[in-house]
């Protein structure tokens, strides 16, 4: 490894995925770990927003709403990006655990986690209309994956 650093060779090329060397099961396990870490971090960030929540009711806010929501644009950029990252990682987890033992239980737990995330976001987001945007954002990765699958089916059947 020290030799790798001293020769100036790119360290990231050494650790890149190599289809001829890496086993599919090992790759799946690594992807599951990465997706689970992303889901965990984004779930936590969503249910406990930056700066926390207001402890009391005032004219401009309600107790339990995200303090960060006062910075409206920044909060909604955070919320949309976080929700897209969360739902994408959930999609990867569902895809990689297909046909696993206890698949039904994994799906039930995953759906419950999604509902919990959505209800927590709803509770801390002051504007219900903007909450709808974040729920639409949650569906974007699933829509894109579905369109890619449909595209592949259509063009494979034409060959």
Write the layout of secondary structure elements.
Elements: H1 2-7, H2 11-14, H3 24-47, H4 72-96, H5 103-124, H6 128-157
Pfam family, one: PGG
Main location: membrane
Membrane topology: Multi-pass membrane protein
Describe the structure concisely for a colleague.
Keywords: ANK repeat, Membrane, Repeat, Transmembrane, Transmembrane helix. 70% of the residues lie in helices and 0% in strands.
Give the fraction of residues assigned to helices: 55-70%
pLDDT averaged residue by residue: 84
Stretches with pLDDT under 50, minimum 5 residues: none
Q: What is the radius of gyration?
A: 20 Å
Structural class: mainly alpha
Number of domains: 1
Largest sheet: none
Strand content of the residues, in percent? under 5%
**Topology pattern, helix = H, strand = E:** HHHHHH
User: CA-to-CA gap between the ends?
Assistant: 48 Å
Would you count the extended β strands for me?
Answer: 0
Helical segment count: 6
State the shape: elongated
Domain PGG: 26-121
Protein name: PGG domain-containing protein
Keywords: ANK repeat, Membrane, Repeat, Transmembrane, Transmembrane helix
Transmembrane segments: 30-47, 74-94, 106-125, 131-155
Structure explained in plain terms:
With about 160 residues, this protein is mainly alpha-helical. It is about 70% helix and about 0% strand. The chain has six helices and no strands. The chain has helices at about 1-5, 10-15, 25-45, 70-95, 105-125, 130-155. It is elongated, with a radius of gyration of 20 Å. The protein starts with a helix and ends with a helix.
């Amino acid at each position: 490894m020290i030799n790798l650093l001293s020769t100036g060779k790119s360290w990231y090329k050494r650790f890149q995925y190599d289809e001829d060397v890496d086993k599919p099961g090992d790759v799946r396990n690594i992807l599951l770990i990465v997706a689970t870490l992303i889901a965990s971090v984004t779930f936590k960030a969503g249910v406990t927003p930056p700066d926390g929540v207001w402890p009391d009711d005032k004219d401009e806010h309600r107790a339990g709403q995200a303090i960060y929501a006062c910075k409206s644009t920044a909060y909604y950029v955070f919320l949309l990006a976080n929700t897209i990252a969360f739902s994408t990682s959930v999609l990867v987890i569902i895809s990689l655990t297909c046909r696993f033992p206890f698949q039904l239980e994994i799906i039930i737990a995953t759906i419950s986690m999604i509902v919990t995330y959505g209800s927590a976001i709803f509770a801390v987001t002051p504007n219900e209309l903007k909450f709808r945007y974040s729920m639409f954002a949650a569906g974007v990765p699933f829509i894109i994956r579905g369109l890619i699958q449909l595209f592949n089916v259509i063009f494979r059947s034409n060959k």
